[in-house]
């Protein structure tokens, strides 16, 4: 099935409800093995990338990642384009719950146009690679004034088989409360949707803002690759 049809056929009511309740949604088996393997096989094809980041040089963790160039590989372009319109209404609900006037456009094209007007012109989808001892420090992927509050990550290797450890960690910070960590173990081909910056959470007196950060725990053996889709572009 072409990727747009696959994305359209997911249970978006469940995904929406999980995003609203928990700030993340784990969707099993979105990419097939061949799609994961093609992405990892292209890791060394330097013409696909605009920039390589050695994470320890910036104290971002231990590992490496590469930002794709425009035009993005077809699979990534199609994922970015077909998932965005499903998430824009959720994001707009969040803005409304938080009493913000900001609204996100219905299409990725319009979001990117808005990014471009704010000098955010560079593509943000990326591929990451960690080996034994590697990890990704807790962070948020904000690259300028314009940011969309949700993003995706696809796991490209099989936990328990290709690597051990390397859990995906979400940290939620509520005002005047202690932080909560959520530890997720997506499998190869799974799509994890999560909060980039903040989301509304319902309390006794209405909605309040909770900040989210994400990261990856230590890879204790093997190699773990992942592909991230961020919707806004970077300055
Ligand atoms: O490797 C991961 O699972 C996390 C990658 C990440 O930080 C991202 O996609 O923004
Ligand atoms: Fe990230």
What is the CATH superfamily? q2cbj1_9rhob like domain
Computed structural class: alpha+beta
Average of per-residue pLDDT values: 97
CATH topology (level 3) name: Jelly Rolls
**Gap between N and C termini, in Å?**
35 Å
Give the CATH class: Mainly Beta
H/E element sequence: HHEHEEEHHEEEEEEEEEE
- Ligand names: 2-oxoglutaric acid, fe (ii) ion
List the topology elements:
Layout: H1 3-8, H2 12-22, E1 24-27, H3 33-41, E2 49-54, E3 61-62, E4 64-68, H4 74-97, H5 108-117, E5 126-131, E6 135-139, E7 150-155, E8 163-165, E9 168-173, E10 180-184, E11 191-195, E12 198-203, E13 206-216, E14 219-230
Antiparallel strand pairs: 1-11, 2-4, 3-6, 4-5, 5-14, 6-13, 7-11, 7-14, 8-14, 9-10, 9-13, 12-13
Helix pairs in contact: 2-4
2-oxoglutaric acid is lined by residues 128, 136, 141, 153, 168, 214, 216, 226, 228.
């Amino acid at each position: 099935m072409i990727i747009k049809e696959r994305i359209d056929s997911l249970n978006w009511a469940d995904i929406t409800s999980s995003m609203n309740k928990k700030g993340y949604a784990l969707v099993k088996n979105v990419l097939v093995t061949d799609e994961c393997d093609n992405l990892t096989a292209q890791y060394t094809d330097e013409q696909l990338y605009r920039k390589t980041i050695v994470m320890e040089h910036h104290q971002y963790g231990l590992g490496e990642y590469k930002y794709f160039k425009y035009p993005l590989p077809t699979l990534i372009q199609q994922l970015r384009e077909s998932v965005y319109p499903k998430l824009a209404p959720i994001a707009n609900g969040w803005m409304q719950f938080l009493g913000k006037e900001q609204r996100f456009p219905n299409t990725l094209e319009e979001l990117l146009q808005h990014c471009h007007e704010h000098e955010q012109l560079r593509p943000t989808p990326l591929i990451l690679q960690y080996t034994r001892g590697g990890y990704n420090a807790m962070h948020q992927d904000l690259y300028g004034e314009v940011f969309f509050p949700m993003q995706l990550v696809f796991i490209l290797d099989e936990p328990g088989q290709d690597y051990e450890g390397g859990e995906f960690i979400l940290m939620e910070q509520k005002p005047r409360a202690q932080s909560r960590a959520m530890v997720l173990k997506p499998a190869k081909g799974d799509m994890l949707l999560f909060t980039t910056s903040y989301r509304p959470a319902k309390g006794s007196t209405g909605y309040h803002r909770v900040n989210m950060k994400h990261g990856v725990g230590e890879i204790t053996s093997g190699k773990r690759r992942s592909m991230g889709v961020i919707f806004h572009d970077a300055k």
